[in-house]
Specification:
Its cofactor is Fe(2+). It comes from Sporothrix stenoceras. The protein contains nine helices and 18 strands. The chain has a seven-stranded mixed beta sheet with strand order 2-3-4-15-7-17-6. A three-stranded antiparallel beta sheet has the order 14-8-16. Strand 3, helix 2 and strand 4 form a beta-alpha-beta unit. The relative contact order is 0.22. The mean pLDDT is about 95. The protein binds succinic acid.
């Protein structure tokens, strides 16, 4: 009897489910910036009871107390303009919304763009890939045995890096669509989304007042340097470095709530502070966000899951916890929104004194 020999060939991956959305990297391509525009905030037009958004919903459940609501039974592709306005309102309130089994992934590039454009002109990314025969507004997130480029760009001691997509824009994104086409087998590849309103509220009153009125420089310089370091001559550099100065604490135009608006991917320094002071403060704030599991939610994907997050009151991070080689394939559409609104330092309503008392009485 001849013994069967085990094949040492690595198992071939099945072909991608969405070949039209495969990433395309063209080192010679360039894209235009959107430029200044008047933002017409959809969330301000919404009926706050969300009748158009939720009329077919079979289940609406909170993912965590401070961030995230999952809505079942609603197809984004079928929503009226009023329904989309209500989506903007609810997303501003909850930070992110999760929709399952969406036919949105099948309606084609132009229809997808049209729906996302309801929330603002679509951003074109400076280095992330788009589909070869698809519009530059699509950001493709593709991690697979046959393309480990994004995995390389996220490789650090920990892949967790909370950020706002493209905060160095003069008008950074608001509501953003992240659409999962194929998720790795088993578990893994979740996105963690965290409430920056809650992150701000959790700071002591006198500390909050110290942050209000500050501004910080946001720049794409570091991610672009990383793209060059990782990919050399094949680096995609479609746009020059983008830079903007934004308030450290911003006001959401829909909810009026204050949010922390610095992130570890793009915020370089606090304006007017010496490097050591700025580094110390930013390191504290980035750690505060990363440790804040109590104001974050974790979204698990299935093919056809769409997460909509509002970048003005949340940050998010990839997890990259599944085995290298498993395919994770998604696309993002990123509408730009308002110029960040600075929070005003409020009159002291006694909160700082109460804070001091808590310290004196050792109640903290
Ligand atoms: C992103 O930052 O837009 C992607 C997040 C993810 O891949 O989970």
């Amino acid at each position: 009897m001849i013994a069967k020999t085990e094949s040492t060939e690595p198992e071939a991956l099945p072909p991608p489910l969405y070949p039209d959305y495969l990433p395309h990297y063209d080192p010679l391509e360039s894209v235009e910036m959107v430029g200044p525009f008047e933002h017409d905030e959809p969330g301000l037009r919404a009926d706050k009871s969300c009748p158009n958004l939720l009329k077919g919903a079979t289940q609406v459940s909170e993912l965590s107390p401070h961030c995230g609501t999952e809505i079942l039974g609603v197809q984004i592709s079928k929503l009226s303009k009023a329904g989309l306005d209500e989506m903007a309102y609810l997303c501003a309130e909850r930070g992110c919304l999760v929709f399952r089994d969406q036919d949105f992934v099948h309606i084609g590039f132009e229809a997808q763009k049209e729906i996302a454009s309801h929330f603002g002109p679509l951003h074109k990314h400076g280095w992330m890939p788009h589909p070869e025969n698809g519009p530059a507004e699509f950001v493709i997130v593709y991690d697979s045995k046959d393309d480990l480029r994004i995995r390389k760009s996220w490789s650090r001691k920990s892949p967790i890096q909370f950020h706002v997509d493209q905060s160095p824009e003069l008008q950074p994104p608001g509501l953003t669509f992240f659409c999962m086409l194929e998720s790795p087998p088993g578990s893994g590849g979740d996105t963690i989304i965290s409430s920056m309103s809650r992150a701000f509220d959790r700071l002591s009153p006198s500390f909050r007042r110290r942050l209000e009125g500050l501004t910080a420089v946001h720049t794409t310089a570091n991610p672009i340097a990383r793209e060059i370091r990782d990919n050399g001559n094949l680096a995609v550099l479609r746009r020059p470095i983008t830079k903007a100065v934004h308030p450290v604490v911003t006001i959401h135009p829909v909810t009026g709530r204050k949010s922390l608006f610095v992130n570890s991917s793009y915020t370089q320094r606090i304006t007017g502070w010496d490097d050591e002071e700025s580094d110390m403060m930013l390191r504290f704030l980035f750690d505060h966000v990363t440790r804040g599991q109590d104001f974050a939610c974790r979204v698990r994907y299935e093919p056809g899951t769409i997460v909509v997050w509002d970048q003005r009151c949340t940050q998010h991070s990839q997890t990259l916890d599944y085995e290298a080689g498993g395919r994770r394939h998604a696309f993002r559409l990123t509408p730009l929104s308002n110029v960040p609104i600075p929070s005003k330092i409020e009159e002291d309503d006694g909160a700082c004194a109460r804070d001091n008392e808590r310290v004196i009485l050792n109640l903290c």
